[in-house]
Amino acid sequence: MKLFLLSDNIDTYLGMRLAGIEGKVLHERDEVEQAVREAVDDPTVGILLITEKLADLCPDLIQSIKLGQKRMLVTEVPDRHGGSRAAGALERYVSEAIGVKM
C-alpha cells in the first residue's frame, strides 16, 4: 500500500515528492473528481492525501469515500500556508481527550 497526494500547489507536491510520495497537482473540480476516482480504483493506494482546498471543491465525493471506503484512508492536509481548519485544532483535540477546557 502506498500514499498518493492530490495537491492544489506545486510546493506541497514537491515537498511530498521529497518524502517519496507520488501525486498530482490539480486546480479544477472535474480534474479533482477524476483523480480521486482513479486513486480509489487503484488497489496499490492505501492512503489518499488531499489538500483542504481541493477537498473543498468536491466535499460530497470526499465524504462519501471517507464513509464508504474500507480499503483506503482519505486525509485532508493543509497546504504550505497552513490549514483553514488547523487553527485551534490541537487544543480542541486535547480538550476533548482529557475533558478539560483550555
Automatic annotation (TrEMBL):
> What's the protein called, per UniProt?
V-type ATP synthase subunit F
Keyword Transport appears in the UniProt entry: yes
The root-end lineage is:
Bacteria, Bacillati, Bacillota, Clostridia, Eubacteriales
Q: Which GO terms describe its molecular function?
A: proton-transporting ATPase activity, rotational mechanism
Alphabetically sorted, this entry's keywords are: Ion transport, Transport
Supply the Gene3D superfamilies for this chain.
Answer: ATPase, V1 complex, subunit F
Origin species, per record, is: Ligaoa zhengdingensis
Task: Give the highest taxon in the source lineage.
Answer: Bacteria
Family matches, as Pfam families: ATP-synt_F (PF01990)
Does this entry carry the keyword Metal-binding? no
The entry assigns this protein to a family as follows:
Belongs to the V-ATPase F subunit family.
Q: Which InterPro entries match?
A: ATPase_V1-cplx_f_g_su, ATPase_V1_fsu_sf
